[in-house]
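Entry 14. Two folds queued back to back today. First construct below, sequence then structure tokens.
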Amino acid sequence: MKICLIQPYDARRHYYAMIPSAGLASLAAVCGRAGHSVRVIDALARRLSPERVADLTRREHPDVAGVTFFTPDHAAVRETVRELARITPRPVIALGGPHPTFEPEETLRSIPDADVLFLAEAENSFPAFLRELEITANASHAALRTPGTAFREAGETHIAPAPQPVDLRSLPRPDWALFEPEKYPTAPNGIFSRHPRVAPVIATRGCRFNCSYCAVGRMLGHTVRTRDPNDIAQEIAELRERGVGEIHFMDDSFTADRDFVLALCEELMKSNPGLVWACPNGVRLDSLDEPVLRAMQRAGCYSFAVGIESGSQQILDSMNKGLNLETVTEKVRLVRRATNIRMTGFFIIGYPGETASDIERTIRLALDLPLHRANFFNFTPFPGSRIYEKLKNNGELRDLDYSSLYIHKIAYAPEGMTKQQLEELQKRAHLRFYLRPRILAGLMSEVKSPAQARTVIARAGSILFPHGHRQ
């Protein structure tokens, strides 16, 4: 069958990062291995309108068009699907990703032209659906026989149980030739990179923890699964041959399995000498020790983020973070003492139940720790998270605008605070952190090109002047 996989783009959004989809690259490889013809339309990289996406899809004459999306992409995906449904002959339209996984009924209701949703990981369920579709030539009948799908038929919604977690070691390497990551603009997930050509790699999936603001465990499971270190190293070698100079591991739990990290670092040192890489999604501080840190640095790691979230132990406990402030201080100082790895502290402000005093404690902690950078993100009630369900059930998310569920927008303010106050507190936090000689000098040393300087300025502007960046 002919398959067209689509990464959407919304011209109204200010994108914090622009990176190719590792998930779609993996799905494309699985479909290719099953004998299907696969084309990728990366609307994000090319800034394509829904009409343009549909036009390019029409030229491919696909049997199935698949679109992946996160919650803030909802409006753009709805428009894209509407355009795809006008193609003749009409392809089967499939949606996947976090939002359809956690809001299947709402997705099917608000995007009525979608034929089938794929819940959680799709590397097993999507090829299974394609096999059934070849037999039945009917999307609903094929979905009914496929685990981990949702669809509507005759006004009734059918939601199958989520599929079993994918065995990562059975998957082919992602098909990066369809994305050409070496041609992407220099706008990776982390603000800084040492090379203008950066590609994402995913080495593990899943998270053992159950933080109330995060849905990763529900999406990918609470067991951390790892790929074969040799397979990861080969993927990186192939990316480097394409002209990619830096790798960003986008894992949610990169350092959770100590033996795996040490084995991967050993493999990278042998097969990819001179590699530079980072972990911009963040690592758990309580998973770090000196041997792991030194191995990461020797293998080429020069930067990672650490999820600290709050300077208030009460708020950390409310988040179910499973982390205490003593450990935070101890581990951040260990990283600084044992390595030259640059650290970005991740903090959340505006969490339910938080006060201005709690936010001040968070700012003070960020100032006291030997961090190189800090991001003070607005609390975002993402679908799938336990706190989202709680707020929704309490009626606190009425008239929620999905496009506002983005880390630099304010979708929610805790009781006793306004969104304007939160915006001012976020601005003040960043200014207090960055307007210090040591921090400014460190940032200046990281800027490697005019393009990178423009990215830094644009992202600073999106934080300090958010109204001017709401596209």
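Second construct, same run, same settings:
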Amino acid sequence: MSSPEKNKPDTAQDSLYAKRKEIYPREVHGIFARWRVAMVALTLGLYYILPWITMADGRQALLFDLPNRKFNIFMMTLWPQDLIYLSALLIISALGLFLFTSVGGRLWCGYACPQTVWTEVFLWIERKVEGSRQKQIKLAKSPWTAEKVFKKGGKHVIWLALSLWTGLTFVGYFSPIRELTVSFVNWDLGPWETFWIFFYGFATYGNAGWLREQVCIYMCPYARFQSVMFDNNTLIISYDEKRGDPRGARKRGKNKPSDKGDCIDCGLCVQACPTGIDIRDGLQYQCIACAACIDVCDDVMDKMDYDRGLIRYTTVNEVEGKGLHIFRPRIFVYSAILLGLVIAMMWSLLVRIPVGVDITRDRNILYREAANGNLENVFKVRIMNQDDKPHTFVISLEGFPGAILDPDEKETHVESGKIIDTLVRVQASEDIIKSRSTNITLRITATDDEKLTDNEDARFIAPADWFQ
């Protein structure tokens, strides 16, 4: 027979991954709960509504049309050549995250992260179908009955419907959503549209319905490197240990025992936490700063007729009596850089001209003599129409008095989002050529809109023996 010692689990190995304990967050009410509801309404409202907005010309206001390589962003149409704006947006987002984290900790996680937002909605659906936290726990432990099947099954049906709507909306940012919806209803989708609708839908269903806090604890990298952006003046959710300890239960309405702190050890802060931690154990990387524990603790303090703020947004230095210093040098540096980048990007978008021109010389020959005896240089002009409608462009020559274009004022029609190459010949007679290399400018202008103008510099080359 094996000894009892051999039958014991290897605690060192078991500790590598703790078995998940089902969490049923308690519903709380308070100022931070209202902020979360407002942020959920704002973010999901924008997510589901934006693809359906159309501009005056009938095009979808927000559409990243990958097959046609153009991106409609309200009044603007951007093209692959405008990826610099995407890079700028990513840099601004990263700096904004650094700034907000340095000031208020994981505010993004608690109020705006997609995982948090959709989990809040799924939890709300769960409460509406199964009831309060206590009823959910009781239902989970009860044997399978018709009522349990109806409630559990109904909850998952609603989750799946919302998830599919989410997946459809996601694809609607990349494929015209009205056509996509009709195709979805008629089940006439393309293979990639079908894949992404169900992939994103089931990802939403799995992450917000099943994994929940596991995504924040084990999968999200932000939880791991957030501490790099924290310092002792960063606002975090903290339990006031000096005021709260020693903890102990007591009757409501009685004077506070002299040997007890304000914490009555009710455990409601743990029940309210969506990741299941005890904030009284100190700051932990699992904390997503949703402030549910603050709301529920303040409610308990009100009932006990104690001051609020036993659990609150504060800083390490403030708890230690060193004062609250939110605005510090790093905050001003982040803010200045962020503001500068935002202003630069907005200014660049405002003055952006949706047309581009690029000039390259004919590599076969630097110069040649034309039939009329003039010296001729040949250039390839590449015109990029980045506007959302077609234009006809006129090419003109500047900076070389007496020189001519052949043909004069050449016209080129370019469809929206297209790039057209055309050849331009610049001719000059011997008497107006003063040096071997002469600076010239080729300008393109839309015939229907003079504001759509761009130009590019080039050089007119003449033989070297002319000037010896």
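Quick look at the second one. The radius of gyration is 33 Å. The first helix runs from residue 4 to 7.
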